[in-house]
Amino acid sequence: MKLKYILLSGLICLGAGLHAQVLPYKNSQLPIEDRVRDLIGRMTVEEKVGQLSKLLGWEMYEKDVAGVRVSEKFKEAVKTQHIGLLWATLRADPWTQKTLDNGLSPQEAAKATNAIQRYMVDSTRLGIPLLLSEEAPHGHMAIGATVFPTAIGQASTWNPKLIERMASVIAKETFAVGGKNGYGPVLDLAREPRWSRTEESYGEDPYLVGQMGKAMVKGFQGSVSGEEDRIIATLKHFVAYGVPEGGHNGGSVSVGERALLQSFLPPFEQAVKAGAGSVMTAYNSIDGIPCSSNPWLLDEVLRKQWDFQGFVVSDLLSISGLNGSHATAINAVDAAKQSIEAGLDVDLSGSGFGDNLLEAVKSGQVDMHYVDRAVARLLYQKFALGLFERPYVDEHLVAQKVATSEHTAMARQVAREAIVLLKNETNLLPLSKSLRRIVVLGPNADNIYNQLGDYTAPQPDEKIKTVLEGVRAAVSKDTDVDYIKGCAIRDTSATDIASAVKAAELADVAIVVLGGSSARDFKTSYQATGAANVESGKTSVSDMESGEGFDRATLDLLGDQLPLLQAIVATGKPVVLVTIMGRPLNLNWAAEYVPAIVNAWYPGQEGGLAIADVLFGDYNPAGRLPISIAKSVGQLPVYYNHVKPKHHDYIEFDAKPLFAFGYGLSYTAFAYDNLQVDVQEENDDFICRVQFEVKNTGGRDGEEVAQLYVVDEVSSVVTPVKQLRGFTRQLVKKGETHQFVFELTKEDLKLWGTDRKWKTEKGRFKVLVGSSSDDIRLERTFVLEKDYTL
């Protein structure tokens, strides 16, 4: 008996000693590189390949009266595919078939992600947590999350500091429910407004896009890897996705090497150097090479030139596109081989790599080195995020971190700063709050989903503030506010212009809210990629005319919107047009006949209140256009910084856009003066200091967005007619004068030379300072006496 006790005690001590020995990859005190190396050494080839698969996550949980738990489909995927990531687990929208009823509240979302991670830690051989990636371009795409303006509106703020703060809010809400990777920012240059995803972009200019993208990355990721309430960013879509021929989403692009290097790649470079943890490849090809199998893009530029340390993920099914739409791979195995060897690390879908990559490795077509390289890149991010030490979220903190009053206030502020005053004839705006009767008209006046944009989850009605609600909340109790819809965005079967006219005739002012919609509905069918199927010629149609898949042949207001507006103007009553839209639409008639126009893009959940703040003077608008508004599709492309020579006029009208890049009005006025340009040249670089004064000469405090453009007057290669190289948004109180200062270096004036090297050439440069790209108030030239290399 004594002997049995001694043996049993010895076994217990031995077991305790083994348990106390922490495996190196689980030892947080070791360098991440050592932990990665150790873990990869313990993985089978199946586990390695599986680690690179990112499956659609909303199928991986079950919800009923008993609670939230992992699904059998999830258990099977883990068992057979050894998956390493999930995408859009918490997403809800018509494509996913997740609604307010069967989707997850924030508290339920935290329970779901904890259940998923607990299964990974407790029920798999190595206990590797999943990286949960979530859509987050203008708020976490989940029920209950705060909904901000879409990216085109964010860019209209011309305020990167505000966007960084907004991004930190999105990160906090995503982190709180278990997401550790946010999809965004989208860094595509939107120079083709027929393209359905224009709303997701920061506009047409590489400098502005780069500043906004950098702000989003900083807001998402913070300054320290693994910091609480921070997530890693995924930059989209690498590269040149926003200029498809004919506006066809995902279509081919015609971009030369110099344009690619000088315009399309710089925003990504800025965001990568800000520390972005992930990059997503675009669906399109570049000069015949698909982005998802392009070693020059993914290895030479991204890794070697920019020193990118994160992982590259495919867009949904883009690996399969190599042996599908692109027809550059003979079969799915060949597609997997091309992608992983080019430097693509993670497969969004689970069907691009998976069995195909496994077969390629086992048959000797792909060297194991490429798989280990990709796995190492992904695991590094998981370790850096602290997932192995903190795989779970605190379910009790969700209510303190998601949709708080502070976050709601931030959504309203971003929406206010995004609003662009396009026209204000005879100072019709701001309106008096004590008018006797106001009528609010139009399809976007009281439609919650039409003001939220694409990539938005269902939200409770009471959470969204429409324009109608905003107007009613702003005016005095003695003002009557009527509402008539008048027409739909596209559907003409229920138009009632007569009732709208009758209401306008009784009102002191008519506020007409028109534009577009990216609101997905359950009647629309969707492709496997999530893009909508467009069925032209249908008699009963949704409002959706923008958003992924809804490309346009014209930019006209659809349905009976223009007839409605024309009928209201014909009453002779003062009219204010408010546009809520995802792309720059044709506003020619309105610009000529409507006295006041306010553009809000898709302003998010607080959009109605923000618009009312501007309409009634509680906020002085200072938003600026990040994209030119064309007079006709026949002008396209019409972006301001096209390469020389200058455009000449057409027979029908001039070559200028209706509203230019950088344009926006205020309720006050600003005068520019005293431009000084000082250049100090050194051996390796120079500093060109540009300073000037801006005085508020109007009767209200207001913010001015001062813009600095540069013209390279003579260069060895053709350069843009002008190029934004600095901007700042600053409050200038009435009667006050503020000094604005910018500094330029060789980096700001570089070009890709004929010798295929970066350089800043000596010669004359012109500095242009003003309130928009076509409202230049001051200019001066300076000369560089020598060339500079980079």
Supply database-style keywords.
single chain; 790 residues; alpha/beta; TIM Barrel; Rossmann fold; Immunoglobulin-like; 8-stranded parallel sheet; 6-stranded mixed sheet; 21 helices; 28 strands; disordered N terminus
Describe the protein.
This protein has 790 residues and is α/β, with parallel strands linked by helices. The chain has three domains: 27-400, TIM Barrel (Alpha-Beta Barrel); 419-627, Rossmann fold (3-Layer(aba) Sandwich), CATH 3.40.50; 670-789, Sandwich (Immunoglobulin-like). It is built from 21 helices and 28 strands. An eight-stranded parallel β-sheet has the order 11-8-7-6-5-4-1-12. A six-stranded mixed β-sheet has the order 13-18-17-16-14-15, with helices on both faces. It starts with a helix and ends with a strand. One of its GO terms (molecular function) is hydrolase activity. Residues 1-20 form the signal peptide. Belongs to the glycosyl hydrolase 3 family. InterPro entries: Cellulose_Degrad_GH3, Fn3-like, GH, Glyco_hydro_3_AS, Glyco_hydro_3_C, Glyco_hydro_3_C_sf, Glyco_hydro_3_N, Glyco_hydro_3_N_sf. Residues 704-773 form the Fibronectin type III-like domain.
Helix content: 25-40%
Summed over residues and divided by their number, the pLDDT gives a mean of: 95
Write out the CATH superfamily name of the largest domain. Answer: Glycoside hydrolase, family 3, N-terminal domain
- What count of helical segments does DSSP give? 21
Query: What's the gyration radius in Å?
Result: 28 Å
Query: Which assembly state applies to the chains in this document?
Result: single chain
Number of strands: 28
Q: What structural class is derived from the secondary structure elements? A: alpha/beta
**CATH class category name of the largest domain:** Alpha Beta
Strand content: 15-25%
Pfam family, one: Glyco_hydro_3_C
Keywords: Glycosidase, Hydrolase, Signal
Organism: Sphingobacterium micropteri
GO molecular function: hydrolase activity
